[in-house]
């Protein structure tokens, strides 16, 4: 059964808690011994304000902690002896949000300020003043609120880690399954295409030995068989490379540029931004993008230059490869295996890919890969 539809919105829950605490503080303060006149009005306002401030405890836990603490000091100075329930809830919220040290410092300061306030504004012996201050904020309740917030924070952190582990495990299993399917598909298609390729080559050879004219369709079949075999082999090699250790990544990009130069292409590499560690999957994807882009440039673009640019951004890695080939804005990029493979890799990481002709002539491949960096 889907219980999500019965879940109370967080905002409504915050308002319910804030109003309930405000009502509890007012009811407790006005039902016991309390001052009269202007001090009664001031104390009542501070009791209500301390409770209602809790409505913002998720958005601004430290500010709420400060407001509830000041309200506790204020209504104690006005003559009310009410346990600072609003401050305890604020302590719970601040610790749950991860502000342990600041919450501890604020609580210690409040434990010191409350007795001093009682000594200044209350009449009677010092022992009675300290007892009244302890009634406003008891250490046992403070420790309990702190421990509850920390326990829930740790539980939420473990839940987040477990969720990330499940996602990573599911992603890894999906990658392994895709690799297995690709290998099976490669083996099956390679066998069938090899038969077609061999038969077409034999037919071409026989026709030429007999001095007969080879039909264009037979030559097309022969060329298509060779190209399909090459593409399948390259695809499987890329998949197998992804499964090897250590993987090829950003450190190997200069080798790709040097290899492109050895093929007669004037290739350059530019690295911008402050270098930082990126996840292995991001580095591997960047390497594959540069590899595929330079390969297409050398084989099909008719280009003389290629510019590889890698930019380290705070939250992303940008990869761009431009060439001065024969592509024009009127040419639509052919949806080959290389382009489809790049797009799949980038999409799997939650990134964006652009592959299109430049304004005048040439082709550009631009990818933006998100990078999660620890705080």
In short:
With 375 residues, this protein is an alpha+beta fold.
Q: How would you describe this protein?
A:
- This protein is of the alpha+beta class.
- It has helices at residues 10-31, 38-52, 61-78, 85-96, 100-121, 126-136, 139-209, 216-242, 253-262, 280-301, 337-348, and strands at 266-272, 305-312, 316-323, 352-357, 363-370.
- A five-stranded mixed beta sheet has the order 1-2-3-5-4, covered by helices on one side.
- Strand 1, helix 10 and strand 2 (305-312) form a beta-alpha-beta unit.
- The longest helix is centred in the middle third of the chain and has 71 residues, at 139-209.
Question: Which short descriptors sum up this protein?
Answer:
single chain; 375 residues; alpha+beta; five-stranded mixed beta sheet; 11 helices; 5 strands; 65% helix; 10% strand; rod-shaped
């Amino acid at each position: 059964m889907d219980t999500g539809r019965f879940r109370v919105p967080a905002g409504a829950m915050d308002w319910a808690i804030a109003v309930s605490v405000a009502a509890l503080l007012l009811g407790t303060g006005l039902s016991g011994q309390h001052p009269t006149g202007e001090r009664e009005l001031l104390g009542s306002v501070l009791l209500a304000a301390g409770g209602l401030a809790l409505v913002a405890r998720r958005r601004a836990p430290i500010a709420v902690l400060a407001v509830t603490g000041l309200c506790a000091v204020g209504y104690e100075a006005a003559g009310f002896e009410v346990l600072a329930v609003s401050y305890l809830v604020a302590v719970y919220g601040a610790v749950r949000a991860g502000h342990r040290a600041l919450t501890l410092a604020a609580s210690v300061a409040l434990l010191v300020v409350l007795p001093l306030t009682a000594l200044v504004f209350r009449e009677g012996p010092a022992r009675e003043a300290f007892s009244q201050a302890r009634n406003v904020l008891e250490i046992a309740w403070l420790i309990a609120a702190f421990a509850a917030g920390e326990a829930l924070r740790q539980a939420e952190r473990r839940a987040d880690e477990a969720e990330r582990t499940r996602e990573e495990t599911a992603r890894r299993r999906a990658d392994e399954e895709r690799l297995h399917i690709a290998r099976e598909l490669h083996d099956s298609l390679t066998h069938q295409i090899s038969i077609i390729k061999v038969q077409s080559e034999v037919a071409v050879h026989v026709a030429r030995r007999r001095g007969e004219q080879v039909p264009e369709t037979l030559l097309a079949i022969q060329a298509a068989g060779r190209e399909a075999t090459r593409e399948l082999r390259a695809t499987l090699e890329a998949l197998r490379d992804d499964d090897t250790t250590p993987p090829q990544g950003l450190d190997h990009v200069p080798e790709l540029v040097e290899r492109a130069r050895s093929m007669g292409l004037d290739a350059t590499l530019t690295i911008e931004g402050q270098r930082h560690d990126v996840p292995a999957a991001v580095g591997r994807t960047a390497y594959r993008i540069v590899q595929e882009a330079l390969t297409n440039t050398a084989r099909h673009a008719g280009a003389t230059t290629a510019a590889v640019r890698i930019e380290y951004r705070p939250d992303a890695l940008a990869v761009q490869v431009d060439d001065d080939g024969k592509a024009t804005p009127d040419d639509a990029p052919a949806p080959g295996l290389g382009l489809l493979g790049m797009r799949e890799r980038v999409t799997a990481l939650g990134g964006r890919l652009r592959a299109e002709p430049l304004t005048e002539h040439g082709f550009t491949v631009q990818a933006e890969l998100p990078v999660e960096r620890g705080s």
